[in-house]
Design a protein that fits this description.
The protein is an alpha/beta fold. It folds into two domains: 180 residues, Rossmann fold, CATH 3.40.50.2300; 171 residues, Response regulator (Rossmann fold), CATH 3.40.50. The chain has 13 helices and 13 strands. Keywords: Signal.
Length: 367
Amino acid sequence: MHRAWRSIPVAAVLLAAACGNTGNNAGAGTGATTTTTQGQGGKTIALFLPESKTTRYEAFDRPLFEAKVKSLCPDCKILYSNAEQDAPKQQQQVEAALTQQADVLVLDAVDANAVAPLVNQAKQKKVPVIAYDRLISGIDYAYYVSFNNVRVGEMQGQALLDAMTARGTAAKGQIVMIHGSPTDPSSADYKKGAKSVLDGKVKVGREFDTPDWSPDKAQQEMEQAITALGKDTITGVLSANDGMAGGAIAAMKRAGYEQLPPITGQDAELAAVQRILTGEQYMTIYLDIRAEAEKSAELAVAVAKGEQPAAPTKVNNGAADIPAFLLDPIPVTADKVKDTIVKDGFYTAAQLCTGEVKAACEKQGIE
């Protein structure tokens, strides 16, 4: 098991990031490249995130990464870009960062199967690349930082099977599987892990690969499944993340479900954790995004300075064995929220326990 790197609560980091930002951050969520500077003479670190539909990227990954870089290297400059799920835009952003003489690229690729030419451009300029969250295939590069994605899928599959077994529905009806974007290699890992648990134990009625991880498209897919299978035959939903789980739940509510079947998720989004507490969603996978962002920042600063930190493992991407840091995912049901998500400061009780969620929080001892 790989250890997780932990530090101060997220709320404190976000506050520090907000207060310490002295650069120009106009266009932060628009896909524009933004620059944060805290001095002169430092290295330039470029961070590229793929989209903002998944709330974690702008709410957590970016501010946590920036705060850690600034704490380690006050004179470093950060170039930040969000591609808004547009691969050509991300290409332009990477090329712009290379033109601005970035010393290291931290890249969460929109299409991780198609960015090898960008990585090659960086290599030609002797600029190291760190693959962040999504494994880039087809080319060698410096590091890969993510979670054990097959294990994520295994945990989702096991949780769904456990919930259906508890309800006595594992051998009845059919499940719907809503997978992530086909351009994200992590999706294949989640799928592989879930199927290794569920194959032969449940019947799959419908299965979808969801472009862009879009909640809206997931809602449409769930509506198609309900129409094709009939709502009374669907006894479980394997959703690869929380945003798509929200879309599937909206479709089921619209279809008039009196009791929702168990549904999985991932990312511990605020709305999803609230749904778990109130019983609409069965579980999520809690990813210690703080650990992922901070470890990536540590590597970026070290690599920019010419260092080569040792990695605990390697992952083969089809072209090379990439030095990797793989963090452990944590499955969270309603009874685990207090001792994981709240305990770590990922969300406070005040953030979670609003409106109709208050009673559910009290039931779980969250105050």
